[in-house]
Hints:
Elements: E1 2-5, H1 10-20, E2 24-31, E3 37-41, E4 49-53, H2 60-76, E5 81-86, H3 105-114, E6 119-123, E7 140-144, H4 147-157, E8 163-167, H5 173-183, E9 186-189, E10 191-194, E11 200-203, E12 214-222, H6 226-236, E13 243-250, H7 256-262, E14 265-270, E15 278-280, H8 283-291
Parallel strand pairs: 1-2, 1-4, 4-5, 5-6, 6-7, 8-9, 8-12, 12-13, 13-14, 14-15
Antiparallel strand pairs: 2-3, 10-11
Helix pairs in contact: 1-8, 4-5
Ribose-5-phosphate (R5P) binds near residues 168, 169, 172 and 226.
Amino acid sequence: MIIIGCSAGKHLASKVAKKLKKPYSELRVKKFPDNELGIRFLVPVRKKTVVLIQSFYGNINDQIIEVLFAAYNAKELGAKKIILAAPYFPYFRQDKRFKPGDCISIEIMGKLIDNIFDKVVIIDPHLHREKDLHHIFNIRQKKLTANHEIAAYIKKNYNAKNAYIIGPDWESYKWAEKVAHLIGCEAIILRKKRLSGRKVVVSLNKKMDLKGKSIIIIDDMVSTGNTLIEAMKNLKKLGAKKFTIIAVHGIFVENALKKLRKNNAKVITTNTIPNQAAKIDVSGLIAEELKKKRFFVFQ
Ligand code: R5P
């Protein structure tokens, strides 16, 4: 096995390789003046199980081309198996034709990956209408979750007895309720209506007194931060003053981190995407999965 750090995956790939005691190499990615990409392996991949680690953030469309070119290249160069480990996988939120003529991006991503990879591993994918990864990919797939790592972080840093875990929208129950269960406290799930990519309305569905409580809002991802800002507005009405926000994927576009911190929020994420708030390491999760003997069995 060889672990290859792609341009948006190096921060985790080298750690994973170290944990597995496997060779590590970076993928060489060069951009030509006309924006075409040049991809090169710097080590032989023949007869190897090649693990490409790519978390998609920033220039995600280039990063998709990068992993597809790398995977086809690995196959042509004689790789035995090709695995994509994507701590964060993009385009999952566009999972239906919202307006006539819309592209269902999640399905197309599934087809692109199916065509060349043997297995895909994703941490906390944003699954909404599609209930599981096998609805998207026909190849072998594994969905990992950082819930245990998040719960361990809370246990270490907070008094769970005095904590309220809040999920800002219906979909967040998979993280908020699970983590609350793991640490033994109550979870409250709010209601959210999305009006556009940047506008959401969040409302409370029950009254409670949050004065003096540790309020920990948990979601799978933060993009513009508007979901969480709206959630905090509502929670303030119930007496909450300070907040901790924990998300798996810190995408943080348009100064989201700064905006959240201005609202008296301490922000923590995992390191699926590197950022200033990434305090919870998920390299062990990926390494454990790659270690499994039955790696190629359908799960
Ligand atoms: C959507 O349902 C997700 O779970 C997040 O709540 C959402 O993507 C966050 O986006 P934003 O930070 O832009 O509100």
